Amino acid sequence: MTVYQHIKGSIVAMVTPMQPNGDIDWPAWDHLLQWHAASGTSSVVVAGTTGESACLKKAELLQLTQRAVELFGPHGSVIMGIGSPGTAKSMDLLRIAEQARADAVLAVTPYYNRPPQAGLRQHYAALADNTALPIIVYNVPGRTGVDLQPETFAALKQHANIIGLKEANAEPGRLAALLNLPGRSVSILSGDDPTACASLQAGASGVISVAANVAPGSCAELYRLALAGEAEQANRLDSQLQDLYEFLGCCSNPIPAKWYLERLGKIQRGIRLPLVWLPRELEQYADRIYEQYRNIEDPLPTA
After folding, report:
1. 301 part of a folded domain
2. Looking at the whole model, is its pTM more than 0.85?
3. Is the model's pLDDT at 33 over the cut of 80?
4. Is residue 302 assigned to a domain?
5. Is residue 301 pLDDT above 60, yes or no?
6. Residue 212's CATH number
7. Pairing of strands 9-13, 206-209
8. Residue 121, domain extent
9. From the candidates 4, 124, 138, 223, which is the catalytic residue?
10. Are 97 and 108 in contact (CB under 8 A)?
11. Other C-beta atoms lying within 10 Å of the C-beta of residue 155
C-alpha cells in the first residue's frame, strides 16, 4: 500500500505542548502521542500551523518529529510540517524531515511573498525533485495570502512525490473541482473541521483536524463513519461537535485548543509569543464549552 493510501481518516494537526516559560514540555508531547495512538488517530502532523511551527527552532523540529516517529510511528503515519516564504528555506526544513525519518511532509504555500501560480508550480516542483519523501501540498489562503488554484494542483499532482493536498479553502465548488481533476490518484484532505464530514462524504480521503487534538476518539469515529458511508450516524455525531468546532475557531489557532487541553490536564499553560493565552473575555464561553464536551471521549454507546 502506498503512503498516500495510508494518509486518510482522522489526521491530527498536533499542538506543541509547552511549559509556562515557553520551553517544550517533552513528557506532555510523549503523552499526547500515546493518547492519539490509543484513540484511533490515523496520522499525526508535527509542526503544522496548530503546532506553532513558525515559532519553533530547527533542533526542536527534529526532536519533535523523531519522538513522534518513535512513539506514534508503529500506529500510523508521521507527517512533518514544512514551509516558509522562500523555496531554499523550505528545502532546509525538508532535510530535517528526512533526518527525522518522517513518513511525509505537509508543505504550505509560501506565505507573505504571495507568489503567482507559476511560482507555486516551480516551488513545489523544486521540493518534489529534491527528496524521496512524499509531499502533501497545503493550501490555506486565509493565512498565506495566496490561493493555489485547482488547475495548478492538476499539474503538480502528476509528480510522483506529490501525494495529496490539504485544502483549507472551503468555498463552494472547490472540493468538487479538486476531486474531478484528471490524472493520477492522490489524497484530497479537508483542512476545515466544520465542513469535514461533508467533505468526506463527497469523496475526500481524510481530515487534518484541529478538533482531533481535544477529542481524538470522537473524531476518529466520526471520520470512520463518514468514510464507511454510514451517513446518518456520521451526521449525528458531526452535529454534536459543531459547538466545539466553533469554539476552536473563536480566536487564533492554537489558542483555544491549548486552553482546552490544559483544562483536560493534558498540557501546561504554555504558548509562545506573539501568541498569548486565551483572552479573559472568552473564559466564560470557554468554560461553558468545556462543561458541554468534557465527557465527549467517554465510550460511545453500542447499538
Report:
1. no
2. yes
3. yes
4. no
5. no
6. 3.20.20.70
7. parallel
8. 3-293
9. 138
10. no
11. 16
Is there a catalytic annotation at residue 57? no
Cα–Cα distance, 253 to 10 (Å, whole number): 18
169 domain-assigned: yes
The answer as to whether 174 is a domain residue is: yes
β-pairing verdict for 206-209 and 77-82: unpaired
Assess whether 138 carries a catalytic annotation: yes
Of 194, 222, 224, 189, nearest in space to 207 by CA? 189
Is residue 3 scored above 70 in pLDDT?
Answer: no
Please pick, among 4, 166, 223, 258, the residue that the annotation labels catalytic: 166
Structural domain count, the chain:
1
Sign for the CA dihedral angle at 169, 174, 176, 181 comes to negative
pLDDT of amino acid 183: 87
Cell matching residue 14: 498536533
φ, ψ of residue 201 to 5 degrees: the values are -70, -20
Cα distances (angstroms) measured from residue 202 to each of 135, 249, 255, 264: 23, 23, 30, 33
44: helix, coil or strand? strand
Q: How many residues does the chain have?
A: 303
Helix (H) or strand (E) holding 107: strand 104-108
- CB 30 within 8 Å of CB 66: no
- DSSP annotation of 157 reads T
pLDDT tens per residue across span 211-243 = 999 999 999 999 999 999 999 999 999 999 999
Closest CA to 184 of 161, 218, 214: 161
pLDDT at residue 83, rounded to an integer:
84
Question: What would the grid cell of residue 44 be?
Answer: 499525526
For residue 119, which amino acid is it? G
Backbone angles phi, psi at 251, to 5 degrees: -155, -175
